[in-house]
Structures are given as C-alpha cells and as structure tokens.
Write a structure and sequence with these properties.
184 residues; mainly alpha
Length: 184
C-alpha cells in the first residue's frame, strides 16, 4: 500500500481534487442513475440495484436477482463489469485525495488509504453480485451472504470515511479560526 500512499501524497492538490470530484458527480448524477433506471425499465418494475441496499438480508438479495428477469440480469451484470469497476476507482481516489489534504500533516498514519479498503469491499461485492446474476436460476444463499458481508463492509468503511472527512473539516476550521491573520 506504500506505493498508493506515495501516489496520493504526490497528486493530492486542488486540481486533482476538482477532477475527481467532477468525475464522481458525473458518475453519480448521470452514469449510475441511468444504469439503475435501465435495469428497472428492463425488469419492468422498480427493483433497484443490490449495490445500494443497506442492511443485511441475503434473502432480499436473492429475491432481487429473481425479480430482474433475464434481460435486466444480463444488463446489470454487464454494468457491474464495466461502470462499477470505474466508479470505485474514482471514489477511492477522490476520498483518498480529500483525506490526504485534510490529514497530511497529522499523525494519523495512512488514513488516506481507507477509501481503497472500501474499493476492495465494493469489488468483492460486485463479484458476488455478478455470480448471482450469471448463475440464475441457481441461487446460492452462501454467495448472497458473502455479497451482504462485503456490502456491509463497504457501507461501514464509507461511513467511517465520511466521519473522517467531517472531523478533518472541523479541525481545519478550528485551526483557521485560531491562526491570526497575517499582514501582507
């Protein structure tokens, strides 16, 4: 992980933050939104996507896979193998850059790598989703459970990232208000 840490320290600046923020917003506001809409359209119902469910319910995951229908399952699997490979990379770098900028001069060692743990959890979740989609009508409660474990890990680590960002911003604000203004 040291090469990733070094890379984040090298690229963490306002320009790279803006680039990854724009990519993140594009994926969230357009690509993923349209992908979910297409899955729902192909399913003929507002089933949603497994990736965005919260909680731990393997049976619900299996029920969602069954509800998609063949065309939506095929489209969803393809989306998981393309769009949902790029998106975790984008958000890992975005939040890695944010955490690097916020904690660069602090003693919290390599906290900026946490988004890459989230990325790994997301990839593991995606592999399980693809397996469930492609193996249907065979349904594996074990694979659905693994999917839920990785999804839960993804959401917990993402929540921790958000808390660290908020905490870092509060620290930044406190430090800015305590530092006397310099005269030019």
């Amino acid at each position: 992980m040291k090469p990733t840490s070094n890379l984040l320290n090298r690229i963490a600046n306002w320009k790279s933050l803006l680039i990854f923020l724009l990519l993140y917003l594009f994926f969230n506001g357009y690509v993923l939104k349209n992908s979910e809409a297409k899955i729902n359209e192909l399913a003929g119902d507002d089933v949603g996507v497994i990736d965005l469910t919260i909680g731990f319910d393997p049976q619900k995951t299996l029920d969602m896979v069954a509800a998609y229908g063949d065309t939506a399952r095929a489209y969803y699997a393809q989306s998981e193998m393309t769009t949902d490979v790029a998106y975790p990379i984008i958000y890992a770098f975005l939040f890695g850059i944010i955490l690097t900028l916020l904690y660069r001069n602090r003693s919290i060692a390599r906290i900026h790598l946490l988004p890459f743990l989230t990325l790994l959890m997301d990839f593991a979740e995606n592999i399980n989703i693809i397996t469930l989609l492609k193996s249907y009508p065979q349904q594996s409660y074990l694979i659905a459970t693994l999917c839920e474990v990785f999804k839960l890990g993804k959401w917990l680590s993402f929540g921790l990232i958000i808390l660290l960002v908020i905490y870092g911003l509060i620290l930044l604000l406190i430090n800015r208000t305590r530092t006397p203004a310099r005269s030019v």
